[in-house]
Amino acid sequence: MDDQALKTETLPETWSVAGRTFTSRLIVGTGKYKDYAQNAAAAKASGAEIVTVAVRRVNLTDPNQPMLMDYVKQDEFTYLPNTAGCFTGEDAVRTLRLAREAGGWNLVKLEVLSDPKTLYPDMEETLRSLKLLVKDGFDVMVYCSDDPVYARKLEEAGAAAIMPLAAPIGSGLGIQNPVTLRIIIENAKVPVLVDAGVGTASEAAEAMELGCDAVLMNTAIAEAKDPIRMARAMKYAVMAGRDAYLAGRMQRKLYADPSSPLGGLI
Fold it and tell me: pTM of the entire structure?
């Protein structure tokens, strides 16, 4: 094994967001599981270091009820509070301020939804609330549409990461607009993560092959027939996709190109 191959085998590649460094490029959610125990098992199987937490839907403060942090330990995972279920900028900002008061969390995920049917982001409200949160000292990872123009505006407004959807939240439709994702990735100077719409391992790998820094998912694992096995599949899919991106895809060709040389035949 040559020096470069040895280096590739032994040194884990990292990525950073808002000054924090991580090895796993898979972020997993904490919703839709049968119970917190299954959630914790899936999170561990995924190899994720970051878990998203819907502040409005998960018990974080009432010790008389089952608490997520009793299962998904904060000394094992970085919590990423999000604003799932918020449809106005004011609601999102208020939710994250309460989260910071409750748990001291400063790295957060912003999502401001437009309507309950599609759960598409309301980009005007998202941009407006992002500016308020940045001014308030938050490090904000932003769920957004796959519009390169809005992605640029979010970055200019101080987003710590851009998180365009691959398809509607919970749809499992996979990546619908790879071209716009590539444009966002090529132009961004902050991490770009596919957030929402991934349904299976091949789609997670595809996102990484496009050049995403990481992938965030919840339903694809939680609603699989075997969530623990799917979590493990996603772990390796993200790793494989990243390796394929770094390795560089072969050039597409119109005609055949034989693998074996024609010269020197008997």
Answer: 0.90
Domains of the chain, residue spans: 12-247
* CA distance linking residue 220 with residue 101, whole number of Å: 31
Q: Choosing from 34, 44, 73, 109, which is the catalytic residue? A: 109
Residue 7 annotated to the active site = no
User: What does DSSP say about strands 193-195 and 214-217: parallel, antiparallel, or unpaired?
Assistant: parallel
Angle of CA points 20, 87, 60, to nearest 5°: 50
> 78 near 107, Cβ under 8 Å?
yes
Nearest one of 243, 144, 245, 263 to 192, comparing CA atoms: 144
Structure letter (DSSP) for residue 51: E
- Residue 113 phi/psi, 5-degree rounding, is -90, 155
Q: Does domain 12-247 have CATH number 3.40.50.9100?
A: no
Task: Write the pLDDT tens digit of every residue in 205-216.
Answer: 999 999 999 999
Cβ count near 121 (within 10 Å): 26
For residue 9, the tally of other CB atoms under 10 A from its CB is: 8
* Residue 231 near residue 42, CB atoms below 8 Å: yes
Give me the pLDDT at residue 157, please: 97
Q: Structure tokens of 141?
A: 């990872």
Range 90-114 average pLDDT: 94
Summarised one tens digit per residue, pLDDT across range 182-228 is: 999 999 999 999 999 999 999 999 999 999 999 999 999 999 999 99
DSSP secondary structure letters along 97-145: HHHHHHH---EEEE--BS-TTT--B-HHHHHHHHHHHHHTT-EEEEEE-
